[in-house]
Amino acid sequence: MQNLLRPIFIQTPTAAPTPGSSSPIDFNSTFDIIVFIVLPILMIVFYFIWKQQKNNKL
Q1: Could you give the CA distance from residue 4 to residue 11 in angstroms, rounded to a whole number?
Q2: pTM here?
Q3: How many Å apart are CA 45 and CA 39, to the nearest integer?
């Protein structure tokens, strides 16, 4: 049985981050607010502006 599972364990990365090693978003940090709130909102707004301009050209 151990010989069947050995290829699976060989492929497991050792230096890869795991879900338990990440910290939650800190909303007191300016960087986190910009990256996780402001940029996604700007992307959505610019998408709709681009879509509207594209439809007006047709």
Answers
A1: 13
A2: 0.62
A3: 10
